[in-house]
Amino acid sequence: MKAIITGMNGAVAPYVYEALQKQGLELVIWDRTRIPTDDEAAIRQFIAETKPDLFFQIATGPVEWLSHIVKVTEELGIKLIFTSTVSVFSEQGTGPYTIESQPDAEEDYGRYKRECEQIILNHHSNAVILRLGWQIGSKPGANHMFDFLVRSHEEKGFIEASSKWYPSTSFLEDTAKVVGQDALQYEPGIYLVNANPSFSFYEIVVRLKDLHEMDWQVKEITSFVRDDRMFDDRVQIPALFTRSSVS
């Protein structure tokens, strides 16, 4: 099988790329310097000439880019896997969320992902939408929780973490398996990907501190109260800290 993958400069796509490689897929990386996101003819030509079986849209980019991708992959019968986010739910609300929960975000990023989801649902008959939580990597230098914590401690000398906030989150390696392997078997639709059954953000930070043997000062706060966890029995992902996902 052959797949096109976008977003290789981000946090999630490199892990998905590795997971797909292990399955023996032939992978083609979208290079925006060669194929502009606003040129429908170039997009169509690239996808048609590549002839992929799968298209992994992991990158963020203009809504128009996604619209072109959706149109071409639908016409050519290519399965689309799109990574969305828990941020489609409003920061003013609280969960936990299920597949029946209605997206209501008005914040920029959440509204953008809501619009992307709707385009896919309206115009693609074989697409899997995966709503992801905050990803946990093992090294600084990318957009994930561990990097955020390292930078926060460097800037402030401590980390404030709420014991009243329950985020949706998962280790990147486990997320990559869902995106790059499990999702290939999913029926078209929306799926919620979260590995956190019960940990507060404070508990997660303390666990990561111990796992990485970091000399962090972690301050517990209770002023931020919210439950962002997503639950979906159809998605099988190891619960946080049930095994060592940190390399």
Structure write-up:
There is one protein chain. The chain is of the alpha/beta class and 247 residues long. The protein has 2 domains: 2-135 and 170-193, Rossmann fold (3-Layer(aba) Sandwich); 136-167 and 197-227, Alpha-Beta Complex (UDP-galactose 4-epimerase, domain 1). Helix content is 34%, strand content 19%. It is built from 7 helices and 12 strands. The chain has helices at 13-22, 40-50, 63-76, 108-123, 145-156, 172-180, 201-212, and strands at residues 2-5, 26-29, 54-57, 79-85, 127-132, 134-136, 159-162, 165-166, 169-171, 189-193, 218-221, 226-227. Strands 2-1-3-4-5-10 form a 6-stranded parallel sheet, with helices on both faces. Helix 1 links the parallel strand 1 (2-5) and strand 2. Helix 2 (40-50) runs parallel beside helix 3 and helix 3 runs parallel beside helix 4 (108-123). The longest helix has 16 residues, at 108-123.
Summarize this entry quickly:
This is dTDP-4-dehydrorhamnose reductase. The chain contains seven helices and twelve strands.
Mean residue pLDDT: 95
- Helices, by number, come to 7
Distance between the termini: 29 Å
Q: The CATH topology of the largest domain is what?
A: Rossmann fold
Q: What does the main sheet amount to?
A: 6 strands, parallel
Order of helices and strands: EHEHEHEHEEHEEEHEHEE
Shape: globular
The rounded Rg comes to 18 Å
Strand order of the largest sheet: 2-1-3-4-5-10
CATH architecture of the largest domain: 3-Layer(aba) Sandwich
Q: Find the structural class using helix and strand composition.
A: alpha/beta
Pfam families: RmlD_sub_bind
Domain RmlD-like substrate binding: 67-152
Family: Belongs to the dTDP-4-dehydrorhamnose reductase family.
Protein name: dTDP-4-dehydrorhamnose reductase
